[in-house]
Design brief:
- Helix content is about 35%, strand content about 25%.
- It is an alpha/beta fold and about 575 residues long.
- The protein folds into three domains: about 250 residues, Glutamine Phosphoribosylpyrophosphate, subunit 1, domain 1, CATH 3.60.20; about 160 residues, Glucose-6-phosphate isomerase like protein, domain 1 (Rossmann fold), CATH 3.40.50; about 160 residues, Rossmann fold (3-Layer(aba) Sandwich), CATH 3.40.50.10490.
- The structure holds 5-amino-5-deoxy-1-O-phosphono-D-mannitol.
- 5-amino-5-deoxy-1-O-phosphono-D-mannitol binds next to helix 8 and helix 15.
Length: about 575
């Protein structure tokens, strides 16, 4: 994962510019953060801190520099623990680099460089990049030539920004597999290279995106200039577009956490999605639908499969992107391939999309972050209306994805959006009750979420939210499957969350719950208002009964709030759970 940013400028405030960009990139990882810049004596200075960008901000607070060039990085650890020596930037022989991606052959390169007498400081794969560039400079190559010679040695993925202390007026970037945006300030006095346009939201008026193998060479002479070279080092034009990403001024607006705020925004997200929806495509030409995504976005796809097959009778497959991209799927011209992603940067989803595109087949993206890689590369696009989602756990974006999928296939007039949003708001108004139930659940050894029909994907989503936020092992299962194995787990240390809306599966789901109760399992029913259940030892949450097609939206808000309160009552950081990142840009 990781986020990178760099700047070459006539201005002096590079530290604040780097730090504020890193804050906007923190969704890519928060294991450590660091910056490096070339000072007025042409020496590289580096400051790194373990943990969030806030720690780095504190460390640089009193720093005064006249530097005009610098690079920054926020890390999600892949190779090497989250300790300072593994934090970026990495430096070798006056070259400093920041890297997003994974160098798969770093051990081999490292061995070769060790044999040449190089000494390594870190366990990171990225350090070999700095070492390799500086090694080539030592053999007599220029900084630019050393970059050009080093890159073909790297296997894997990378977006790299590099500076060299003997050329403090040169900033070089290159990429393969990981995204890279080059931004120009409106006054032309600064140029930036970063992982995405969000990092440059308040800095760059115009943006261009590099293609795989490209280099961007930025120079500060009389004025700031840049050229883009392709992998054969021929100059190429990449179109500049306006950077219309608004400055990220998202605040918690009085909520304790972004996640709570984002769950409370779910009804409005549904309303905005409904109001803004317009289909970009004529579906009549397709006989099959293939939905491809990861994590919560994948569960939106699982939910949509129920709707599409049931309501419009089109054969639908749902695929986990990391599997789809590496197996040999049978693709067809009569299939529409839909890629679902909040961030638009998930590497497996992006590469799955590229594989399908390479076969000349039709792709549609459902993405929340505009101008993200998936949004830019898909043929047809739907932009979800969730607004910025800061909490690492996807909440309101799931609502936007699911509703967009429903609206793509079902006539808007058949959906009663008022009923949906009203019911979701009613669930939210029960937050004290949900908090109390969470208190009963929080010390369980594990959680089992079960449901049938469209409640099954919500069970999957509930279990994912529970494990990522509260670190309790949790599974989502179709209710009918529990006696095929999971029932063996059931005892008084396990809580089962039964999603039992009053639909055509209701009686069957209740029977499954009774089987759990008969084995001393503890049970929470999430069912509809008006349902009479009387199992003494169980807990109950009642949600409004609405049109069965739309019922999953109401259940979702309930299980999101439940996961939130379980984690909160365990005293955990719900916005940035351990070991995770908002955008998964490595495979
Ligand atoms: O940005 P994407 O929607 O492509 O992300 C996919 C998953 O990484 C994401 O949904 C993840 O599972 C969330 N943390 C779940 O809350």
């Amino acid at each position: 994962m990781c986020g990178i940013v760099s700047v070459l400028t006539f201005e002096k405030e590079i530290i604040e510019c780097l730090i504020s960009s890193l804050e906007r990139l923190e969704y890519r990882g928060y294991d450590s953060a660091g910056i490096a810049y070339i000072d007025e004596n042409s020496k590289i200075e580096r400051i790194r801190r373990v943990g969030k960008v806030a720690h780095l901000r504190q460390a640089v607070e009193k720093l005064n520099t006249n530097s005009h060039i610098g690079i920054g990085h926020t890390r999600w650890a892949t190779h090497g623990k989250a300790i300072e020596k593994n934090a970026h930037p990495h430096i070798a022989g006056g070259v400093a680099i920041v890297h997003n991606g994974i160098i798969e052959n770093f051990e081999q390169i490292k061995r070769e460089l060790l044999n040449e007498g190089e000494v390594f400081e870190s366990d990171s794969d990225s350090e070999v990049i700095a070492k390799l560039i500086s090694y080539h400079i030592k053999t007599g190559l220029s900084f630019t030539e050393a970059m050009k010679t080093s890159m073909p040695r790297l296997k894997g993925t990378y977006a790299i920004a590099a500076i060299y202390e003997k050329q403090p007026n040169v900033l070089i970037g290159t990429k393969k597999g990981s995204p890279m945006a080059v931004g120009l300030s409106s006054d032309g006095r600064s140029i930036f290279i970063a992982s995405d346009s969000v990092a440059l939201s308040s800095l760059a008026g115009q943006i261009t995106y590099l293609e795989d193998g490209d280099f961007v060479i930025c120079l500060k002479e009389e004025e700031i200039t840049y050229k883009i070279l392709d992998s054969s080092f021929s100059e190429v034009n990449r179109s500049l577009i306006l950077n219309n990403i608004a400055q990220n001024t998202v605040t918690k607006s009085g909520f304790a956490d972004f996640m709570l705020k984002e769950i409370f925004e779910e009804p409005n997200t549904a309303l905005e999605t409904f109001n803004n929806f317009g289909s970009p495509i004529d579906l009549s030409q397709y006989k099959n639908i293939s939905l491809i995504a990861c994590g919560t976005s994948y569960y939106a796809g699982v939910l949509a499969k129920y709707w599409i097959e049931d309501l419009v009778g089109i054969h639908t497959d749902v695929e986990i992107a990391s599997e789809f991209r590496y197996r040999n799927p049978v693709l067809s011209k009569s299939t529409l391939y839909i890629f679902i992603s909040q961030s638009g940067e998930t590497i497996d989803t992006l590469n799955a999309l590229r594989n399908v595109k390479a076969q000349g087949l039709d792709t549609l993206s459902i993405v929340n972050v505009e101008s993200s890689s998936i949004d830019r590369e898909a043929k047809y696009k739907i932009k979800t209306s969730a607004g910025p989602e800061i909490g690492v756990a996807s909440t309101k974006s799931f609502i936007a994805q699911a509703l967009s999928l429903l609206l793509l296939f079902v006539d808007k007039n058949k959906i009663d959006i008022k009923e949906i949003t009203h019911a979701m708001n009613e669930v939210i108004s029960q937050y004290e009750k949900i908090k109390n139930v969470a208190n009963k659940i929080k010390n369980s050894k594990s959680l089992l979420y079960i449901g049938r029909g469209t409640s099954y994907p919500i069970a999957l989503e509930g279990a994912l939210k529970a494990k990522e936020l509260s670190y309790i092992s949790a599974e989502g299962y179709p209710s009918g499957e529990i006696k095929h194995g999971p029932m063996a787990l059931v005892d008084e240390s396990i809580y089962s969350i039964i999603l039992a809306p009053q639909d055509k599966y209701f009686e069957k789901t209740i029977s499954n719950a009774q089987e759990i109760l008969a084995r001393n399992g503890r049970v929470l029913f999430i069912t509809n208002e008006g349902v009479q259940l009387n199992f003494g030892q169980a807990s109950y949450l009642y949600v409004p009964k609405i049109d069965p097609t739309a019922q999953p939206f109401v259940l979702t808000t309930a299980i999101h709030l439940l996961a939130y309160y379980i984690a909160k009552q365990k005293g955990l950081n719900v916005d940035q759970p351990r070991n995770l990142a908002k955008s998964v840009t490595v495979e």
